[in-house]
Amino acid sequence: MTTLVYDGTFDGLLTAVFEIYERKLQHIKLFKGEWRNTALFEDVVQVISDTGKYDRVLNGLKKKVSSNGIQQLYAAYLAETKTCDEIIVGYIRHAFDSPYNVEEDYGNRYVLRVSEIVHQVRRERHRMEAFVRFQKLKDDIFYAAVEPDYNVLPLLIKHFKNRYADQKWIIYDLKRKYGIYYDLHEVEYVELDFSTANDKGKQASVYFEDEHLYQHLWKNYFNSSNISSRKNTRLHLRHIPKRYWKHLTEKI
């Protein structure tokens, strides 16, 4: 058994695949971060992300699966589950070793599991597209906080860039401590420091002065559009689970 230690990025994961084939490794396990085990007989390969190696694996994949298949592998990587890395590598090895396109080979456990993970990630992406609620800051930037189950911010860029192309906005993942920022031209990844605004007074001071009025109007619209006689709490919770409520204006 050989342990491949990589930096946790998608580039690093594909570089690890290159090392597997370069070194002709059969039985492997993956480890993210810095290896601290000092076992005398541990067979460890420290994987350094390499653009050349990454590109060779990616170009090889393009010959084996469609562009949608590659997008699915990236979406599965964003799930950040404990075993997703091993599943993705298993899928890639199966693709390289097969004479046919394996994207619909659901008899293979790696292909089936990737499909299941991608379904969950895409469902979370759709929920974020529906549940993001922006609040206007004093510098005319619209800010929204989210805490998705999966790391879906990279999958939200195209939707929000197209939908809100005429305004600056930030969508920030509080759980993973990074966000995406659109400046009317491009989207970039950002990290924010909330240490100077950790009480309600300071937090309120950064919002546009009429923001509370807009929130009040939205709450009134939400309440007036509901029909009490048709209220179905179970169905409502299925479509809008409670874990999202703290970031929804109409629920605060």
Condensed summary:
Helix content is 44%, strand content 13%. It is of the alpha/beta class.
Give a description of the structure.
- With 252 residues, the protein is α/β, with parallel strands linked by helices.
- The chain has helices at residues 10-22, 51-62, 67-77, 84-97, 109-131, 153-163, 200-205, 211-225, 233-239, and strands at 2-6, 28-32, 44-46, 135-136, 142-146, 169-173, 178-182, 187-190.
- The protein folds into two domains: 2-123, no CATH class; 132-251, no CATH class.
- The protein is built from nine helices and eight strands.
- The strands form two sheets. The protein has a five-stranded mixed β-sheet with strand order 4-5-6-7-8, covered by helices on one side.
- The longest helix has 23 residues, at 109-131.
- It is globular and about 55 Å long.
Write the layout of secondary structure elements.
Elements: E1 2-6, H1 10-22, E2 28-32, E3 44-46, H2 51-62, H3 67-77, H4 84-97, H5 109-131, E4 135-136, E5 142-146, H6 153-163, E6 169-173, E7 178-182, E8 187-190, H7 200-205, H8 211-225, H9 233-239
Parallel strand pairs: 1-2, 1-3, 5-6
Antiparallel strand pairs: 4-5, 6-7, 7-8
Helix pairs in contact: 1-2, 3-5, 4-5
Distance between the termini: 51 Å
Poorly predicted runs are: 199-205, 213-222
Mean pLDDT over the residues: 82
Count of strand segments: 8
Counting helices, strands and paired strands, the structural category is: alpha/beta
Note the beta-strand portion: 5-15%
